[in-house]
TrEMBL record:
InterPro entries: DUF3126
Protein name, per record: DUF3126 family protein
Organism encoding this protein: Aurantimonas aggregata
Top-level taxon of the source organism: Bacteria
Length: 69
């Protein structure tokens, strides 16, 4: 993902989750994915998707059962 894309999506997620310390870090070997961190802790993946000339971003967060205890 390009730096300008990351900045835009990062600003959107920060506003949506009211989380100023949310950070998106690009992956070195993937141009369509990035990692999402909150308080410097990995929380999920962000994927860029272009389908039928429409651009979207998918945020995936896995919640383990041990995290719920």
């Amino acid at each position: 993902m390009k730096p300008d894309e990351i900045r835009k999506v990062e600003a959107y997620l920060r506003k949506s989750f009211k989380a100023a310390d949310l950070e998106i870090r690009p992956l070195a070997r993937k141009s369509d994915s990035a990692e999402v961190y909150l308080n410097k802790e990995f929380v999920g993946l962000l994927a860029k998707d272009t389908d039928e000339d429409e651009l979207s971003y998918h945020f995936t967060m896995t919640i383990l059962d041990i995290d719920l205890e």
